[in-house]
Amino acid sequence: MSSEGEFSSRSVDQVVLSREQAEGQGARVRRSIGGVALRNFDPFLMLDEFDVATTAGFPDHPHRGFETVTYMLKGIMEHEDFCGHRGKIGPGSLQWMTAGKGIVHAEMPTGPDRGHGLQLWVNLKSGDKMVSPAYQELNADEIPRATKDGVTAIVIAGEALGISSPVQTRTPTHYIHFKMEPGSELKQPIPTNMNGFLYILEGKAAVGPGREEKDQIQAHNTVTLTKGGSGVLVKTFDSSADFVLVCGEPTNEPVVQHGPFVMNTRQEIQEAMLDYQSSSNGFENASKWYSEIGLPMTHADRRR
After folding, report:
1. Has this prediction a pTM greater than 0.85?
2. What are the Pirin N-terminal domain coordinates in residue numbering (predicted)?
3. Which H or E run contains 272?
4. Annotated binding residue at 107?
């Protein structure tokens, strides 16, 4: 980690506005990474900001070859999978799920409020794609946080402001939720071998060296950063800013994706589809399992 005198900020590479689109059952999400303008950003495959009514959600569906990271901002999301795992992710809480060789699950909002949060997909290297499914779950009060000079850091993975997260990541990843008061400044170190981006949830901020008030970036934009530099400089002026900074070590491997399956070759994708359809090689429970929380109308249609 660089000292204060050695700090050099990365610059803005791209600014991509997240576009709203349909997803799941009656749900709509704002998708940035994984959309047309930013297909992927190694090692990240997708970033969705979801705001889902309790009458909608994400019923039974499979995954293979990557990790899903669900971070709730408001409301409660209930989760259930075909391995018998079931729980709720409340406001400020985290679920880091390794799909590995195969998982089928449902994610549905519950309670009186809409479910608002972020879901990030992190690619796994070829040697990790067929590991057994696993979970890391932290309640809001278990995620480290610190405040200094008008900046609050909620450390989901990695470290910031002298504190670190207990989350272990197969693909080295830093994931930090920052809240900046008006007129504050952040100099956050980033490992030189990682790609990084910001997603602005609320407010606006200037990102990178030499950026001033006129250069501020608004909410719902993804800001990818150039390589090089020891970190990123973020400044606020007359407004506050609420954003996540996500950095990861690229896999530098081919990415072949078919919906919820992400592998390295087309043959591996075909094998994943066959395994799911035949309930084998990681999907043994798929044919006989239906979630209790998923919408009943999807149960009859899921395997068509």
Report:
1. yes
2. 27-122
3. helix 266-278
4. yes
